[in-house]
Amino acid sequence: MLAARMEDSEFREEYERARREIDQVDFVIRQLDELREKAGLSKAELARHIGRDPSSIRRLFTAQANPELLLVASIAEDLDADILVVPRTSATEESRRDVAGPATS
Amino acid sequence: MAWDVVYYTARDGSVPAIDFLDGCPTKVAAYLLAVLDAVADAPPPRYSGGGQWEAMHGDMAGYHEVRATGPGREQFRLFCILENADESELSRRGFERPAIAVISGLRKPWRTTFDDRDYRAIRVLGDDYRSHVPRRIAS
User: Fold this and answer.
1) In chain A, what residues touch B139 (CB-CB under 8 Å)?
2) What is the tally of structural domains in chain A?
């Protein structure tokens, strides 16, 4: 089914874009869950640390919630981790610098 | 191990989920299929699907839904059943490995809800799907 649809370039472009978005969300949440396990924290303990309802953490780590960035950031902070946005190419980075103007110190 | 994605085929040979996807905007169909593939590539209990894959409850317990938002915030859903059993049972059902069976889809305007009749229609298809061994599927 998918192979036939992928022959349509518009579909393929949208599918690949969606997969990149989904894979990035999945990667971040899985990394946080691995860090939680390494820290020896239960989901309920993590929830208590960041002042959230345990059910919201359970839902997040079982793919039953659309991750809210503030919640993700709170978890990362509690696990002593940062969430980074990394430009894919240096060209992308340079073009963004151009738009932002020269850096000042 | 990645799971397969298969589609329930009705007695008349139609494939409701594919008919549904054919009627969706391209971007929505692409998104729904991307979520399905992400979940199939990293199946439960791992986190996958970008938060757009959810186990259902109540009368729809046993189903999972894939969610997408389209133009004008129209809501799109695909309803799925997980085929995850031991090797002999999977083989009896006609599978080589666990699979996500996509039953059908529904769409609704923003700020409206699916009613019992909508969900019942999905369950009728799901019951028909489960009543056949091996399963009647397209892939």
Assistant:
1) 1
2) 1
Q: Would the CB atoms of B47 and A63 count as touching at under 8 Å?
A: yes
Q: Do B47 and A65 lie within an 8 Å CB cutoff? A: no
Q: Phi/psi at B112 (nearest 5 deg)? A: -120, 170
Contact B18, A1 (CB under 8 A): yes
CA distance B17 to B21: 6
Supply the ipTM of this predicted assembly.
Answer: 0.92
Nearest in space to B35 (alpha carbons), one of B79, B67, B81, B71:
B67
- Structure confidence by residue, pLDDT tens digits, B15-58: 999 999 999 999 999 999 999 999 999 998 888 998 899 999 99
pLDDT tens for each residue of B50-89: 889 999 999 999 999 999 999 999 999 999 999 999 999 9
Cα angle A47, A48, A50; round to 5:
70
Strands B53-55 and B4-8, by their bridges, are unpaired
Give a yes or no: residue A1 inside a domain.
no
Q: Is the CB of B18 less than 8 angstroms away from the CB of A10?
A: no
**Contact list, B39 vs chain A (CB under 8 Å):** 63
**Do the strands B75-83 and B137-138 form a parallel or antiparallel pair, or are they unpaired?**
unpaired
Q: In this structure, is residue A13 part of a structural domain?
A: yes
Touching check for B82 and chain A: CB below 8 Å? no
HSE-up of residue B102 (Cα within 13 Å, Cβ side): 29
A105 part of a folded domain: no
